Amino acid sequence: MESDLVGVSRDLDARTVLDAYRAGVFPMGGGRAITWHCPRVRAVIPLDAVRVPRSLSRRMRRGGFEITCDTAFGEVMLGCAGRQDTWIDARILRVYQELYESGDAHSLEVWVDGALAAGIYGVQIGGAFFAESKFHRVTDMSKIALVKLADRLRLSGFDLLEVQYVTPHLARFGAVGMGFDEYLRRVEHAAGLRRRF
Length: 197
Known about the structure:
By secondary structure, this protein is α+β, with helices and mostly antiparallel strands. It contains 7 helices and 10 strands.
């Protein structure tokens, strides 16, 4: 498989990250250098065709969880970083916190019994949302976070939900691959929309 690595840098800043997303590139940390990635096939979840597995639909109907947005961004990022092998390092945490503070990054949280059970975060440019990572502490809650994020974006008139790579897990929710040229056209269109998360 062709490498998606297109560059490295020692550090990064919020403006560079936003410009990179517009160009179809995103950063990853976890090593000495920041690596910049540009998969030639991009995973997107069509907001009008999100699939909810039957077992998850049953779990969602049972309730017992609460959804919030932008109330625990830092905690969500730390939850996503709390894995043995993670690309979310101190540089990534710092820059995405800056993006959150400027209104360019957002999180969706799932709470169970008053505790943070799962979350997902990403970057917004206009009507495009670039989902970065999700985590869970309670079974099925990160899946619920993804579905609720897609619902929120659809209801808010967003045009694009990007999830980087098609995986069997994401394909269960309707993720499909999109060629890079078409993806950039979609990003350009979506970025020109005025949407509120």
